[in-house]
Write a structure and sequence with these properties.
Blueprint: H1 2-15, H2 20-45, H3 55-92, H4 95-100, H5 105-141, H6 152-165, H7 167-179, H8 184-195, H9 197-202, H10 213-216, H11 228-249
Helix pairs in contact: 1-5, 2-3, 2-5, 3-5, 3-7, 3-8, 5-6, 5-7, 5-11, 6-11, 7-8, 7-11
C-alpha cells in the first residue's frame, strides 16, 4: 500500500510537467463550448418562445444527445490520457530504470491505470456540471422555468454508469500505452475500435464491447442489457491481471 501511494504521488507530480491534465479538462470544455454556441444560435434563430413542456422532458432533451456524444468520444479521451501518462517514461527511456527498482512491475501499470481513471472521472464530472449549467442557461433564455427541477439524481446516475462502463477501456489503453511508445498505437487502436462500434450494436453485443460500453450504459443508449456498468469493472480486473502478468514476464521494456 505504501508503494502504491508513492507511485500515485509520483504520477501526480509528473502530471504537472505534461499537458495530460489540461487535456482532460480542455476536451470536455471544448465540447461544452460547441453546445453553448448551438444554444445561442438556437436562441437567435427562434425568437418566438415555445411553450414549455414538463421539466423532466426538457432536462432529457438537454442531457440525452450531449451525453451520448460524450460517451461515444470518451474512449478517445481515455486513449490520449493513457498515452500522456506513459509518455515521460518513453521519452526519457526510463522503463529499464523503473523496472529495475525493487517494486513489482504490475504496480507501475496499476498506478498509471488508477491515475487515468481519476482523470476520466474528473473529465466526466466536469462535463456533467457543464451540461447542468447549459440547461439552466436554456431555461433562462427560453423561459422554461425548469431551474428549480434540476434532476441531480439522474445526472449523477448517468455520470456514474458511463464512468464505470469505461473501466475496461482504461485498463486496455493503459496496457497499450505502457507497452508501446508514442501516441500512434494507443490512439490508433481506440479510433479503429470505435469504427466497429456500429457492428457491435448491429449484432447486439454493444454491452460487451469495451469501446461501446459507455454509450450502451446510458438510459438512451442502444440497449440496457447486459449492464455495462457491472460488466466493465469485471473485465477491467481480468485485463489488469493479464497486463500485470505480461509486463512482469517481459525482459526488455
Amino acid at each position: 500500500m505504501r508503494t502504491m501511494r508513492a507511485l500515485l504521488s509520483t504520477e501526480a507530480t509528473k502530471l504537472k510537467k505534461t499537458a495530460t491534465l489540461w487535456l482532460s479538462l480542455i476536451v470536455p470544455a471544448m465540447l461544452l463550448l460547441l453546445l453553448f454556441i448551438g444554444l445561442v444560435d438556437d436562441y437567435f434563430r427562434h425568437p418566438i418562445r415555445r411553450m414549455p413542456v414538463s421539466a423532466e422532458t426538457e432536462w432529457i432533451s438537454v442531457l440525452a444527445r450531449p451525453w451520448m456524444l460524450w460517451a461515444h468520444l470518451l474512449p478517445i479521451l481515455i486513449a490520449v490520457e493513457a498515452a500522456g501518462l506513459a509518455s515521460p517514461e518513453h521519452a526519457g527511456k526510463h522503463w529499464k530504470q523503473l523496472y529495475a527498482l525493487p517494486i513489482p512491475r504490475w504496480s507501475v501499470y496499476v498506478a498509471k491505470a488508477l491515475m487515468c481513471a481519476l482523470l476520466t472521472a474528473g473529465s466526466s464530472l466536469f462535463f456533467s456540471a457543464g451540461l447542468v449549467a447549459l440547461g439552466l442557461a436554456r431555461s433562462e433564455l427560453f423561459h422554461l422555468q425548469i431551474a428549480s427541477d434540476v434532476p441531480l439524481g439522474v445526472v449523477l446516475e448517468v455520470t456514474a454508469r458511463a464512468y464505470l462502463a469505461s473501466w475496461c477501456v482504461i485498463a486496455i489503453q493503459t496496457w497499450l500505452s505502457v507497452r508501446f511508445s508514442g501516441f500512434a498505437i494507443s490512439i490508433g487502436t481506440a479510433v479503429a475500435a470505435l469504427l466497429f462500434s456500429g457492428l457491435a450494436a448491429q449484432f447486439g453485443v454493444a454491452g460487451l464491447y469495451p469501446w461501446t460500453m459507455p454509450l450502451d450504459s446510458l438510459p438512451w443508449g442502444w440497449s440496457e442489457a447486459p449492464a455495462p456498468a457491472m460488466v466493465s469493472p469485471l473485465l477491467c480486473v481480468a485485463v489488469a491481471v493479464a497486463a500485470g502478468w505480461h509486463l512482469s514476464r517481459r525482459e526488455v521494456v
